[in-house]
Amino acid sequence: MAKILKMVTQRLALGFLTLFVVSMIIFLGVELLPGDFAQEILGQSATPETVAAFRRELGLDLPWYTRYFDWLGGVVQGDFGKSLASRRDVSDLIGGRLLNTLFLAAVAAAISVPVAMILGVLAALYRNTLFDRTINVFTLTSISFPDFFVAYILILFLAVNWNIFPSISNVSSDLGFWEHVYRVILPALTLTLVIVAHMMRMTRAAIINLLASPYIEMAMLKGISRSRIVTHHALPNALAPIINVIVINLAFLVVGVVVVEVVFVYPGLGQLLVDSVAKRDIPVVQASCLIFAATYILLNLTADVLSILTNPRLLHPK
Amino acid sequence: MSEETRKTTGFTRREVLATGAAAGAIAAGLSIAPGIARAAPKKGGTLRLGIGHGSTTDTLDTATTTDLYMQVVGNACYNYLTEVSNSGELVPELAQSWDVTPDAKVWTIKLRKGVEFHNGKTMDSGDVVASINHHLGEDSKSAAKAILEPIAEVKADGKDTVVFTMKTGNADFPFILSDYHIGIMPAKDGKLIDPMSGVGCGGYIIENFEPGVRTTLKRNPNYWKTDRAHVDSAEVLSITDVTARTNALTTGEIDAMDKVDLKTAHLLARSKKVRLEEVSGTQHFTFAMRTDTDPFTDNNVRLALKYAVDREALVKTILLGHGVVGNDHPIGRSNQYHADDLPQRQYDPDKAKFHLKKAGLDSLKVDFSAADAAFAGAVDAGVLYKEHAAKAGIDINVVREPNDGYWSNVWLKKPFCAVYWGGRPTEDWMFSTAYADGVPWNDTYWKHDRFNKLLVEARGELDGSKRRGMYFEMQKIVSEEGGVVVPMFANYVMGVSNKVAHDKLGANWALDGFRAIERWWFA
Predict the structure, then answer these.
(1) Could you tell me which chain B residue has the CA closest to the CA of A48?
(2) Same structural domain for residues A22 and A50?
(3) Model pLDDT, residue B363
(4) Is B253 in CB contact (< 8 Å) with chain A?
(5) C-alpha distances in angstroms, A273 versus A280, B182, B470, B489?
(6) Which one of A42, A76, A110 terminates a domain?
(7) Over 60: is that where the pLDDT of B23 sits?
(8) Are A113 and A243 contained in the same domain?
(9) Do B253 and A45 touch (CB under 8 A)?
(10) How buried is B339 (Cβ within 10 angstroms: 0-12 exposed, 13-18 middle, 19+ buried)?
(11) CB of B131 within 8 A of CB of B98?
(12) Closest residue by Cα to residue B361 from B293, B304, B307, B417
């Protein structure tokens, strides 16, 4: 256990270093984009005078390193600054959006992870049967289509033709829990279709891989039923790679769903980030990117810890 | 084009301006779709609009409003001094009447009495002066700074009167006060209390404002207009994806949307639950040539490029028929002084060749910068233009520019590029925004002495028929010597649920001149 704690601490420290580097890269990246906030906000109506007034007010006339270290100084004290556009605290602005994103990710995960695991186990159990092939073809098809296309197909049938679910996820904080779930069900189903194949195929492959090992053969010789062998003997040993794939997909659910957000008009973090980059609203871009980076770092760490817990041999790499 | 749009009012310009009633009368906009016939508006309901703009960086400060989302929200929660009515006339809003000196230099505006802001404060001259000053001064970052530039001084004269002194005569000044940037907001000690608060005199009070997502509004119980603000509440959603917007309309999630996808408009029109509404106003697309850069310094080259575009084909292909051809000047057919007798320029490769020869050239090769940020289909329009011009021996190389940063890096910088103009309600406003010598948006860097002289003269001229002559001549000059190809005027095409009713639609801007929320009702 002590070893795990040590590893977690080390990884967290490295994580902070990564976040620092990420924030620097993002800041420089946005600096390199043509045009700045004042020009983007004023758009076609920008004149040199109004742009200059805007820059003076927001301190955009200072050199980039001054602005970066000002921002970094604030972040170290827990202050993510104010949005250049609305002058609202970034934490206010992002809070609701982050909750929405996490909510959608949670609903999608709650549907997709069990479905993928069960299908994976069943596919391994009935390997090379018609069932196995059907599942494979279906999930691989759905992952091969771009996510907006899957979304449009779902909208066409479930919203336009049969009118079961709303075509846009118009959510607000005063909705009840189930109403909220109802309104995000279409984006959640879209995401499920997009990620299920990956997790399901990994589950199937990991289990099949183990089915050839001697201890499984032993179990078979003892006359244990196939389903019990798979669920009780093979699956626990196959968990490490499966967990890794699931976690990567969870991270995708948090950071990679901007297209689905746009199609369903869902007010999540992705849309906020795209808007902010387009307008060069750096404090918001930085905070969103740090959240995304932190999500990856933490989820990867979780995956490693869980893998080690299910397979302590991983603590001692050869 | 109906004859009706050409009619002028029976008044002389001076009478109209001086009485302040129904001043201006830019001819009626052209409502093409039938709409629902006049019936007494009913109260109640929640109007939900889906708008193809909106961003998380939006604010309620009208000074920085740039797109339809905040324009519609702004017109619901703020009132302005004047308003362009649905028939295109200038009508008083928070102003009650106005008076002008014969040189059109000093405008005295009487304010409506007893109008309250949402916060209960009574609107007076101090608020108006502060709201105007918000856009002026060195620290102003307002997009309206340029159009308010002619003001030399604005001051209150008692509680209910504001006096504007112009630097030079300006006969159209009250029109400018209807601009969506110039919302009237409450002030204290000569400064606006908070331009981002959304407190105005408008028919709707902001209940919840989530930039880039939604705005919810409820009816202002103290609204001074009795024949407006029919719905109890409104919800304005930002739905930038056109497919999502269309789905939301057909499944009843919203009651109206702007910017219908023209490629699928005929399919949407088949739906029994929704109808298409279309108005043709001043929105136009241009190909701007920098007249200070070779080869566009030579007017023959510019004329060659003007003759080398097949406008009918562009309207048919890019606008799918939802628009009309342009005549190389920015004045729309719904404008009061549109030059009808100016012959329509036709596609004529031979004439283009002729002018090319006159310029001493056998062939011409130019780069044309475009991006869909300029207008939807701008790149395709460029490619079509290339094909048309090839027949005249002109080789147009279409450069696809990034959408991102188009207005800061391409427009006003590249020698030849595609541009979008929302259009302006008056000739003077349009010309002095983009064609006068030295103004920041003169995207053709064009300088024409006669034109600039006429512009100033017409601005100070209160006699309608004299102005008409001047504006006709100016359109002719721009068309024949200007640096701009104006191939087409685009309609505003909207999708509206059959549950929604409205009067004749305003043609000055999309969604009933931005006023859908206070003008529309549920049938």
Answers:
(1) B440
(2) yes
(3) 86
(4) yes
(5) 10, 30, 50, 35
(6) A76
(7) no
(8) yes
(9) no
(10) buried
(11) no
(12) B304
Domain presence at residue A112 = yes
In a shared domain, residues A281 and A218:
yes
What is the number of structural domains in chain A?
2
One domain for residues A37 and A131: no
What region does A168 belong to: left with phi over 0, alpha with psi -120 to 50, or beta? beta
pLDDT interval class at B298 (50, 70, 90): very high
Q: What pTM was estimated for this model as a whole?
A: 0.81
Final residue in a domain of this structure, among A45, A76, A107? A76
CATH code, domain carrying A154: 1.10.3720.10
SS3 label, residue B40: coil
Of A53, A84, A264, the CB nearest to B139: A53
If asked whether residues A27 and A157 sit together in one domain, one would say no
Q: Which residues of B touch A57 (CB under 8 A)?
A: 139, 141
Residue A310 distance to chain B (closest CA, Å):
43
pLDDT digits (tens, 9 = 90+) for B484-498: 999 999 999 999 999
pLDDT greater than 80 at residue A57: no
| A65, A94: one domain | no
- The nearest CA of chain B is from the CA of A66 a distance in Å of 23
A234 pLDDT above the threshold of 90: no
**B82 pairs with which residues across the strands?**
B92
Tens digits of residue pLDDT in A300-314: 889 888 888 887 777
Q: Angle at which helices B449-460 and B427-434 pack, to 10 degrees?
A: 140
Q: Which two tokens stand for residue B213?
A: 């997502």
Residue B106 has what pLDDT? 94
Show the domain range for A303: 90-315
Q: In the predicted model, is pLDDT for residue A164 greater than 70?
A: yes
pLDDT of residue B153: 92
pLDDT value of position A285: 87
Taking the mean position of all CA atoms in its chain, how far away is CA B509?
6
Q: Write the DSSP string, B248-275.
A: HHHTTS-SEESS--GGGHHHHHH-SSEE
Retrieve residue A188's tokens. 């959640």
Minimal CA separation from B141 to chain A, in Å: 4
Angle in degrees, CA A81, A86, A91, rounded to 5: 40
Count other Cβ atoms within 10 Å, centred on residue B138.
8
Nearest to B31 by CA among B521, B513, B423: B513
Q: Is residue A140 part of a domain?
A: yes
Q: A285 in a domain, yes or no? A: yes
Q: Which residue of A has its CA nearest to B144?
A: A45
What is the rounded average pLDDT for all residues in chain B? 87
pLDDT band at B32 (very low <50, low <70, confident <90, very high): very low
- Residue A242 and residue A303 in contact, taking contact as beta carbons nearer than 8 Å: no
Task: Tell me if A50 and B247 make a contact (CB, 8 A cut-off).
Answer: no
pLDDT, tens digit, for every residue of B311-336? 999 999 999 999 999 999 999 888 88
Predicted ipTM? 0.77
Same domain for A217 and A256, yes or no, is: yes
- How is residue B221 written in tokens? 């119980």
Q: Rounded distance, CA A75 to CA A282, Å?
A: 13
Q: Which residues of A fall within a CB distance of 8 Å from B138? A: 49, 53
Domain membership flag for residue A233: yes
Q: What is the mean pLDDT of residues B431-457?
A: 90
Do A189 and A274 belong to one domain? yes
- How does pLDDT run across B42-88, given as a tens digit for each residue? 899 999 999 988 888 888 999 888 789 999 999 999 999 999 988 88
Any bridge partners for residue B46, and if so which?
A: B233
